């Protein structure tokens, strides 16, 4: 996919409840599978940034989740195992580097 096509692609938005049960809006940045595993992962960034943070959009925190698709339902799981987290982070960074190399 060329960079021009990516700019016009509709972002995938998901809603994740916070600790108080309020649904927060997140944009899916990337979905991937880790080599040697049948687990699927997604990286998301929050969409509701307050006006102070808008100037600093580059520093948006990225969240990682393991996910399963069940028909139209999406089940998200937090990554609590440090070894799993390191594997996901390494894969994400490798994929980002490949995207940057293609630009």
Topology:
Layout: H1 3-8, E1 13-17, E2 23-33, E3 40-46, H2 51-54, E4 63-70, E5 73-78, H3 82-102
Antiparallel strand pairs: 1-2, 2-3, 3-4, 4-5
Describe the structure.
The protein has 103 residues and is an alpha+beta fold. It has three helices and five strands. The longest helix is centred in the last third of the chain and has 21 residues, at 82-102. The protein is globular, with a radius of gyration of 15 Å.
Order of helices and strands: HEEEHEEH
The count of strands amounts to: 5
Mean pLDDT: 82
Unreliable stretches:
1-6
Characteristic terms for this protein:
103 residues; 5-stranded antiparallel sheet; 5 strands; 30% helix; 36% strand; disordered N terminus
Q: What's a concise summary of this model?
A:
With 103 residues, the protein is of the alpha+beta class. The chain has helices spanning 3-8, 51-54, 82-102; strands at residues 13-17, 23-33, 40-46, 63-70, 73-78.
């Amino acid at each position: 996919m060329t960079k021009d096509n990516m700019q016009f692609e509709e972002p995938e938005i998901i809603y994740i409840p916070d600790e108080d049960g309020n649904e927060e809006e997140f944009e899916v940045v990337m979905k991937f599978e880790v080599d040697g595993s049948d687990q699927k992962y997604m990286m998301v960034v929050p969409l509701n940034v307050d006006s102070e943070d808008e100037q600093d959009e580059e520093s948006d925190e990225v969240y990682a989740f393991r996910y399963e698709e069940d028909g139209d339902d999406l089940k998200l799981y937090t990554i609590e195992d440090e070894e799993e987290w390191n594997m996901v982070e390494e894969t994400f960074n490798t994929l980002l580097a490949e995207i940057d190399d293609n630009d």
